[in-house]
Each structure stands twice: as structure tokens, then as C-alpha cells.
Amino acid sequence: MPLALLALAIGAFGIGTTEFVMMGLLPEVAADLHISLPTAGHLVSAYALGVVIGAPLLAAATARMPRRAVLTGLMILFVAGNALSALAPDADWLLAARFLSGLPHGAFFGVGAVVATSVVAPERKARSVSLMFLGLTIANIAGVPAATLVGQHLGWRATFVGVSAIGVVSILALRLLIPRTAVGAPQAGLRGELTALKSLPVWLALGTTVAGFGALFSAYSYITPMLTDASGYADSSVTLLLALFGVGATIGNLLGGRLSDHALRPTLFGGLTSLVAVLALFPVLMRTEWSAALAVVLLGITAFLTGSPLMLMVMEKAASGPSLASSANQAAFNLANAGGAWIGGLALAAGFGVTSPALAGAGLGVLGLGVAGIAYAVDVRRAPSAGRQRVVAAGTPRRTEAELEARRG
């Protein structure tokens, strides 16, 4: 594994930890700042809003800058946001700091994906993206539980000091492990990045991300009541079960990267189909403790099986502007988080049962399959002209889209 991928994974680990740890620290934060739990929940939304706004804006603003310098600057912003969170004197300050912390999230993964694919052979591009995302999935296994434990025993401010330290380590790794000449500023600049977003295939790929990961978050947002009310687990067991989700996500992420390098579209369609099947079986799987634990692992595997193929597909469709498009894919992921949770909540509020959010998620997964099918039909229709177009993948040899599709089957 190129050491540059290790630097990217360290940054992803820090970002994944700070994104999800707030959910486990809400009671401590609410008590310390004398606010209600619903008000404290806005801190989660503030981060997500920062991701959605920051992903396209920062990617566009840094379009002509060297990629290593961009990644370093984004992590400096990340450290500043978390340090300000640790120093927050009141809820409004913390709300602003969480928004600031979310701004570099999407751009880091977007630009990082371009760098990752540039330091490996063309046939290993999807695997390189999955190795970067490995930091994010491991954060769910180790980073978030450890940070939550620190916050509960040493105070929530100590957690954000620790996350800031991870960011500093990431900055050093980026400067030392990513070669200065690995990837320069894109030749197309801002105009090329913006032109890429005019492509229908790019928007169809982003739509697949919203629907596909919306399916995940429709169920995952309400996994705790499913496990306690339907499966009979004690509240104290939920943390361990969520770590199992992280294990599944890690397996799915690595498997998706490897499979996508051989057959991108079949991996995407297979992942979405498997996700729909698992979600549809949730009402049955949640009846016993052992099958519920299995369902949590399978949910992580099937959902993250689609992560690498979706990111790579967005980058290839946005040939002239992969940084902005892949950053937009991270914004789409967070829209899926918010939208999926909302739709799952509607099913729950309608009185359809504690496992109904999973069935709503299955419906979103079917929608994702439909969008992916339309994207495939558009590509087939454009195939005669696609052979004359070049796909630029940030420092990798140029190949036509028809050649790429042929190689992947």
C-alpha cells in the first residue's frame, strides 16, 4: 500500500470520529451547557450542514491549488473547528464550531479520492479509494467508542482535544507521506470542475448515492430501538452491536473496492440489490438476538459495498472535474443521511412498527437501483460517442470510457 494512502486514511479516521462521536456525547454536552437534548441534537445537524455546504464550495475554491496543499489546508481547518469545539463557552459557540468542523469533510474525501487514484496503477483505483475510506469505517469500530468513553469519563471537551490531536498527526502524515509531485492542480481549473457537473451521468451517479445511502440511514438512524424493543437487547449492549456494524462496513468497503476494479457496475448493482434484500428481511431478523446481530453486520457489508464503485463512477463521469464531483458525492452522502432518517421517521411515526424504517429503506434502495439502471441506459445510448471522449483520472493513464467499461465487464 502506498504510504500516501496511509496519510489519507489517518485523516479519514479523524473525520469519521468527530462526525459520529457527538451522537454518543449528547447527554454530557446538554447537561454541561444547560440545554435540552433536542437542542443538543442540532449540533449533529450543524456538522452535516457544514459538509453539504463546504464540499462543493471548498473543492471549487481550491481547484487550481496543488492537491497536497489543499488536503493540508483542509485538515488545518478541521483541527481549528475541533479545537474551538473544545473551548466552546456556550451552545451557540459550539454550534458554530461544529459547522466549521464539517466544512472540510466532503472536500477532503473528494480531493483525497483523486490523490488516492493517482498513486496506484489504473487497475487498482477502486481499491485505493476503499483504503482511504478504511479510516472512516475503522473510526466506527474503534475511534467513536474510544472517544465516547473519554468524553464520559474526562468530559466531552477532552474528546475534541483528542480529535484535534488526530488532526495534527494527519497534517504531519500528509506533508511527509504524499509526494509533492504526486498530483498537481487540475489543468482544467474551476471552469473544468464546474463544466463536469453539467453532465447527466454525474447527476445520475449522485442520485444513486442519495437513494442508496438514504436506504441505509433510514434503518440505521433507528437501529437502537429496533435492537432494544424488537430484539430484546439491553441498552448497554447497543454500543457493542454498533461496533459490529463498523466491522461489517469495513468488510463491505474493502470487498467493494476489490470487486469494483474488476467489474464496477455489477458490484454496484449487486450491492444495492443485497442491501434491499437485507432491509426487507429486517422484520424477521430482528425477532431474535443472534439474527439481529447478524442483520447489523450484513447491513454494514451491503451498504458499504457500494461506496467505492459510486465514488469511482462519479469521478469517471466527471472526467474534467473529478475533485468537485467527488466532493459533491460526499454532500450527497450527507443528504442521504438527513433524508433517510426523515423518511424512516415518517414510517415510525405512522405507527407501522419499530422495524418499519428498514422497510422504508428497502423502498429507497429500490429507487437507487432504478436510478442506477437509468444511468446504465444513458451510458449504453451514449456508447458510440463515448469512445471518442477521454476519461482523466488525476495522473493515471488516459483511457476512453468505453475501454474502462469493457475492462470492468
Low-pLDDT windows of residues = 386-409
Shape: globular
Question: What is the average of the pLDDT values?
Answer: 84
Rg is 20 Å
How many strands, what sense, and barrel or not for the largest sheet? 2 strands, antiparallel
C-alpha termini separation: 26 Å
Task: Using the coordinates above, name the CATH class of the largest domain.
Answer: Mainly Alpha
What portion of residues is helical? over 70%
Cross-sheet strand order for the largest sheet: 1-2
The structural domain count equals: 2
Structural class: mainly alpha
Kindly report the name of the CATH homologous superfamily of the largest domain. MFS general substrate transporter like domains
CATH architecture of the largest domain: Up-down Bundle
Strand content: under 5%
The number of distinct β-strands equals 2
Please write the string of helix (H) and strand (E) elements.
HHHHHHHHHHHHHHHHHEEH
Describe this structure in words.
- 56% of the residues are buried.
- This protein folds into two domains: 185 residues, Up-down Bundle (Growth Hormone, Chain: A); 223 residues, MFS general substrate transporter like domains (Growth Hormone, Chain: A).
- It is built from 18 helices and two strands.
- Helix content is 81%, strand content 1%.
- Strand 1 and strand 2 form a beta hairpin.
- It is found in: Cell membrane.
- Keywords: Cell membrane, Membrane, Transmembrane, Transmembrane helix.
- It is a multi-pass membrane protein.
- This is MFS transporter.
